[in-house]
Amino acid sequence: MILDPIGDMLARIKNATQRNHATVAIPLSKMKLSIAEVLKIEGYIEKYEFYEKDNKGEIIITLKYVNGRSPIRTLKRSSRPGVRKYVAVDRIPTVLQGMGIAILSTSKGVMSGHKAKKLKVGGELLCVVS
């Protein structure tokens, strides 16, 4: 049983990029699907697909490599099941002076930090990607 599914997702992606794998499989959930969508929009992954069969599903993430290197350097889980971390719109972190992103779960859905600033919404700081 996985106690932190989002942390597990981030660890799988991080491990796959370190080993230069083309794809990585992750158990399906709506939150993980939303995070994969943000990673795709922001250009950190190539694409993702999800399959569902027998009430179980998985997300297949195709990782992106530029000149043999992944754009993902670090994936850090900010809010955990035991310690939730919420930020107001004026407290959303700037990652690597704008070169990375923060991913938030807001009342308007899961989105990147700069999109949340634009919409003027805060929320739970899920993770930081650089």
Radius of gyration: 14 Å
Mean pLDDT: 95
**Counted beta strands:** 8
Class by alpha and beta content: alpha+beta
Helix content: 25-40%
Number of helices: 3
CATH architecture descriptor name:
2-Layer Sandwich
Poorly predicted parts: none
Task: Write a concise keyword list for the protein shown above.
single chain; 130 residues; alpha+beta; Dna Ligase, domain 1; five-stranded antiparallel sheet; three-stranded antiparallel sheet; 25% helix
Question: What would you say this structure looks like, in words?
Answer:
By secondary structure, the chain is of the alpha+beta class. It has helices at 5-18, 30-41, 113-119, and strands spanning 23-27, 45-53, 56-63, 75-77, 86-87, 101-106, 109-112, 123-129. Strand 2 (45-53) and strand 3 form a beta hairpin. It is globular. The two termini are 29 Å apart.
Summarize the entry for a quick read.
With 130 residues, the protein is of the alpha+beta class. It is 25% helix and 34% strand.
Topology, please?
Blueprint: H1 5-18, E1 23-27, H2 30-41, E2 45-53, E3 56-63, E4 75-77, E5 86-87, E6 101-106, E7 109-112, H3 113-119, E8 123-129
Antiparallel strand pairs: 1-3, 2-3, 4-8, 5-8, 6-7, 6-8
